[in-house]
Structures are given as structure tokens and as C-alpha cells.
Amino acid sequence: MPEQHLGPVGYLILEFTDGRIGAAGFTALVERVDRGSMYLIDLEFFRKNPDGTLSSLVPHDLGRIDGLDLAEFDGAVTGLLDDEDLATISDAVATGSLACVVVYEELGMRPVLEAFAADGAAIVAEGPVTVGDLEAALDSLDA
Q: What is the tally of structural domains in the chain?
């Protein structure tokens, strides 16, 4: 049996500059996880303090938002993020902002990867493509 391979893994750093979050994005996230098209690897909340440091927030402490109880995400907090990740988050968000980091696996590619493996193909390289890199490549094609 071929070795199981993860689908594409990605992350998002979401910034809520006014410190207020809505439920729509988190509801859509739950729906994707429930449908089996995404696996939530980690989800963590932070507030950027005036001194530039980050304070970790537990989802249930953020309460209910538009009917969605953020305690639903307590089990998704893994502590996976390291000091380099925290520095990236701190650099990306403004002081006083609330940040949410979502690390996820796209499960839709798993059957494709398994089919290639069954045919004897091996992944020899993989990695993320940033939106900026994709836009630059597309712009260069237009030039």
C-alpha cells in the first residue's frame, strides 16, 4: 500500500483591525471541515499588544459571535506555531488588532495523490505558491 501523503497544507493569518470578528468566515470554515474537504490542523487567536508582543487568546474566551460559539475551535488549538511564526504574525498585524492563524490541509487533492502513487508516481517536489507570486507570473505572461 502506498504511503499516505498529505494534500496541500497552507496557512492564513487573518487580521481583525478593530478587534471585532464576525461569524461568516468561521461558519464557512466549519462547513468545509464538516464536508470533509478540509482538515483543520491548527487555529489560534492572538492580540497584538502596544509593545509589539502577542497575547494568545483561547477561542472560548472570545465567546459567541453572531450565534457561533468560538469554543467550538478550542480543540483546534495545537500550539504548533513556533517563535518564527509568532514573529511573522507580529510583523503582519497592527497594534491592537486581533489575529487568527488557520493552518489547514486541503483534502480534495488526496484522491488525486493516491491515484498517482498507485500508478507508481512519486512527488519529488512540492510547496506553496503565494498569491503575489502567481499574480506576478500571470502579469509577466501578459507583458
A: 1
